[in-house]
Amino acid sequence: MGSTSDVGRRDLIKRSAALGLITVPAMSALSACASGGDDDSKKVDKGKKSAKNPLAVNESAALDVVIFDGGFGQQYAKDAEAEYAAAFPKTKGKVKHAATQKIQTVLQPRFNGGTPPDLVDNSGAEQMDMGTLVAKNQLTDLTPLLDAPSLDDPNKTVRETLRPGVVEMGQFDGKPVWILYYAYTVYGVWYSKSNLAKLDAEYPETWDDMLKVCEKAKKKGIAGWTYPGKFPYYLPFSLYPFIAKIGGREVLDSIDNLEPNAWKHPAVKAAFEAYYELYKKGYILKGTPGLTHIESQTAWNQGKALFIPNGSWVENEAKKTTPDDFQMAVAAPSSLDKSDKMPFGTLWASGGEPFIVPKSAKNPEGGMELLRIMLGEKSTKNFVKQVSSLSSLNGGTDGLTLPPGLASAQEALTKAGKNVVNPRLQDWYVTLQKQQIGVGALGEMMAGRMTPAETIKKCQKFADDTAKDDAVKKYKHV
């Protein structure tokens, strides 16, 4: 431990004047979407239900799929679509595949016009607001898929093959399941074992040790941290479990629930002050506020910074610039001090890559069947091998040799045990999480343009405004 006492750590950083603010949009553009309706006249006729076709898919109908072309790419989906066409030969040549990084820009007109795709991977910076989609009744309930026999074992339903918590993540207002999270993401602090070894250091399990490692790196001309400054909503990937570790998971629950003064909890203050200390001590890579996710990951791969907050998709997304001897790894947030409510190893892990079947889709059964195929062992293992990510299928890595980052994520998940948190702000209130808290508050703080106290005040105001907005449907932990 360093010379700073545990008690002093929490009050080390003093308030300083903010240098500027940023204007953010008040609500997602998708909120302008027409309210959902189900025009059965546009839907294809259902097929004949059988053991091989439990969802009664029309075996000759076209299928329209749109995939987010991000860290996971799109080949895994194309491969699953080929399996779909093999299962239903009359659909050969009728499976339309499109990929984009601008999900909302591309799909909002189709949702408005009542002609959405049959299956959408709703992810990325332009992700459509999940809460808005649910509130406006624009999604198909995926319960029939979850209750259908799994592809590999007809004695198990799809629901019974999924990792714990995946089904619940897709629920917003009761029993219906509106979203199927296909990937299983481990969030945290990512680093290179080989780069730490060059400094004769290991991953720091305490915040004092984190600062020591960053100081050691600084003397060698290496930054301690970088992050996607243009998309600072990556910061919560390590910051939120840090808050939970300090104050308990109930702190994150109160934030998700939009409770008054939730952001003013001492654990939030302590976590913000600790991260702000990275900025104050010059441990953030110069120019980070102007970097995209790709640029920050590339700088990290080049050894310009030791640590980066990210999710387990990063191994695939950054593979073109990752050195062969990098030994990519992920760890849970460091402990702040001995009064932390949760043990070291506490991390955020949850379903990722949300798939939806629009309410007005022409072939919703086909969209759900493609998801059933994707959750089969063949497609799942193909996904794991291609993109270095866990999937929502429990045991989807059995028999596979995992690359370093994914093996580390699996180890971190095992170490966490029951100490896994799953903040819901990012899927309940996308605009609040990404544009307001991410860009408008945390991004400003880490760039040195706002103090922790000012950031907390801003976060609370954003949350309060959302809570008071009758146009935004509210969700709560039960």
Automatic annotation (TrEMBL):
Broad class of where this protein is predominantly found: other
UniProt keyword annotation of Signal present: yes
Domain of life: Bacteria
Subcellular location(s) per record: Cell envelope
Short name of one Pfam family: SBP_bac_8
Key words, A-Z: Signal, Transport
Family membership: Belongs to the bacterial solute-binding protein 1 family.
NCBIfam families: chitin_NgcE
Protein name: N-acetylglucosamine/diacetylchitobiose ABC transporter substrate-binding protein
